[in-house]
Amino acid sequence: MRKILTGLLFLGLIPVANAQHVASIVGPNKEVDPFHYSVVKRGNFKQAAVSSAHPLASMVGAAIMKKGGNAFDAAIATQLVLAVVFPNAGNLGGGGFLLAYKTNGELIGIDYREAAPEKASRDMYLDKNGNAQLNLSQNGHLASGIPGTVAGLFATHAYAKLPFAELIQPAIDIAAKGFVLTEKEAASISSVKDGIARFSTQPTAFYKPTRWKVGDTLIQKELAHTLERIQQEGAMGFYGGKTADLIVAEMERGRGIISHADLKNYTAKLREPIVFNYRGHEIISFAPPSSGGILLAQMMKMVEKYPMTKMGFQTPSSVQLMIEAERRAFADRAEHMGDPDFWKVPVNTLISDTYLQQRMNDYSPDKAGNSKEVNAGVIKESEETTHLSVVDAAGNMVAVTTTLNGSYGSKVVVGGAGFLLNNEMDDFSVKPGVPNMFGAVGGEANAIVPGKRMLSSMTPTLVLKNKKPYIVIGTPGGTTIPTSVYQALINVIDFNKNLGDAIDAPKFHHQWLPDEVMIETGFDNKTKEALQKMGYHLKDRSSIGRTDGIRILPNKIRETAADKRGDDSVAGY
Ligand code: DON
Questions:
Q1: Which residues of the chain have pLDDT under 70?
Q2: Please, is 127 exposed, middle or buried when counting C-beta atoms within 10 Å of its C-beta (0-12, 13-18, 19+)?
Q3: Which of 44, 183, 224, 508 could connect to 17 by a Cys-Cys bridge, CB 3.0–4.6 Å?
Q4: Annotated catalytic residue: which of 385, 479, 483, 527?
Q5: Ligand 1 centre and the CA of 96: distance in Å?
């Protein structure tokens, strides 16, 4: 029983270029086979394409479009497969954001971010001396917000064409029958299996006494049954009935606080996207409760008036300018951003030209700024407001970033239900000024309140050029998300790189506090030395983000790129 996804034929899924890379998985008559697949980094496709964190997820998404689904169908099916084959971040127990452009010009933003349970409270992670207990916001049952993903998938389905039951079937099959692990995935599960065993009801599918190896099969029967309940009962197959009972029972075992009422009352919300112009391109990204879209707009608008192309790709001058924009944007994040249903985020001011020009007044091109002197802007305005990319044959674009927060979230697998719960509560500011797991600080705007959604950095992003769909892009990486998207877009727009090279280029990251620049392995040494001379503290980092994107070229070819940093993989036809 190897070829389990009958019906998902890859008839004619032939790439236009890079044939040597793709022939092994997207040849004619080839089925999605969870026991034989390979990672494909780049592909140029004529009609429809997916780029995601795992080959099986991308292949299923492409096959769904080949069967008549649109980009929304593909995004649903791809996410569901990621929930099976990429348990680090693909999820049922987490949340995310979907951003879409429809060929009729409509923009859609679906917020299915986790929310704080009713029993949550502002100081729930402080001990009696007022010290933050980050072990509780980062691991175990108390770390979870109310999961949003399943509500998000059904909200997305309003724009899809195929029955939900069909879109979820590949995920059910792969969970029930299993799939072979890649080397990276085997290493990743091995590194966390003891942590999962510590927090979860035993046994879980992820535990075995020996290390997982490449080629091992991971079977997830309980997860398959949970997916079947969703297939049969819709969203209430997760937020009600047996799955909800299992989640609440798991909470009770581990002193968690998510209740039946929390689950039943959870809804996905539509959000108006952040839209701005950058050198003739219309850039669309996600609004609060993600900080991503505002940060992206701020960083790009702060550098727009400078001659980036002339300054050159990753030269000391262009990198320094980009870092100083990052510093200022992240200072604003800490002060001004939170869930807009609980905190007035001054969106219009934060992304206005006047405000952003004035933010760069103290920028000096020859020396490092100082985060002690660069604070959040003073705003008087009182009113306001694992990533995957899909393009279908019609040109609809869908960008989804979804997460459990940390790798494998809270490490709690819901007993009997087979999926991991998020540790998204750590994205709240558990105490003013105390850094979360990504080093981000915050205050009142992002304090814990029941029902409130924790501030995110996720930045699913779309670009239109000459009013036509051009780029879909996004990445994981906590606070490095907006800076990775910013740099990838600038690499394309200012430095004329193709999308794959723009994504694979080494990244750098400054987030105001701590006052240091993370520099990814492979970054130009001369530029590093020049930055150090200007006074920057550099901190080496092995890998930043896993950016997956698609660019539509003037001849309509879907230039599809998966980040070299993971098992990320493309598929299409
Ligand atoms: O919403 C956020 O900003 C974070 N919870 C994202 C976490 C993430 O990207 C983890 N991946 N490295």
A1: 1-30, 380-385
A2: exposed
A3: 44
A4: 385
A5: 10
